[in-house]
Design brief:
alpha+beta, 4 helices
Length: about 180
């Protein structure tokens, strides 16, 4: 279907598809709940993919029940819930929790990270007031809490922000609202 879309053709929705599925919901809140289910349960079960590393939710809007902001809240709560052994901190209006999937949202030439780079929050040092984010599975960047506004949750990102990126699995909610 990706090749069909690239050639300007309508996608096909065969009853028994191997890798392309359509789930119809009648409102955006149920669509958001379905996205969480598909990412956290169906894709890992069917394909053996890790929902934190291998699955990216792309959405055309930032606001609304199926937008970036709300989906990031729901996906963080499901994929990386609070735990007594997990440090978290409210910084720059966002709850950062060790294990979160994050995106660099502006270029930082000094640190060598750029708008759209994806990473994982590895550590929060409450005493030193900083966050350590691992990019490319190997490169750790330390952010002072004051610089945390360079980071955004990345369980779900806008289609615009994802341009040029590739992922093993993608989930896209399309709603009429």
């Amino acid at each position: 279907n990706a090749h069909r879309v690239n050639h300007g053709e309508e996608p096909l929705f065969p009853r028994e598809s191997e890798d392309f599925f359509l789930f119809v919901e009648d409102n955006s809140e149920r669509a958001a709940d379905r996205v969480v289910e598909v990412v956290s349960e169906r894709i890992p079960r069917k394909f053996g993919l890790d929902p934190l590393r291998d699955v990216q939710v792309l959405t055309p809007m930032r606001r609304g029940d199926a937008g970036v902001i709300r989906l990031n809240e729901k996906l963080q709560a499901t994929l990386n819930p609070p735990a007594s052994d997990k440090i978290e901190r409210l910084v720059a209006g966002r709850t950062f929790r060790v294990g979160d999937r994050l995106m660099q949202i502006q270029n930082d030439h000094r640190q060598g990270v750029y708008n759209g780079d994806l990473g994982v929050l590895m550590a929060i040092d409450l005493e030193a007031q900083n966050l350590t984010v691992r990019f490319d599975g190997e490169r750790d960047i330390v952010y002072e809490f004051a610089d945390a506004d360079q980071l955004a949750p990345a369980y779900a990102v806008s289609i615009h922000k994802s341009q040029g990126s590739e992922y093993p699995a993608v989930v896209i909610p399309l709603v009429t609202r």
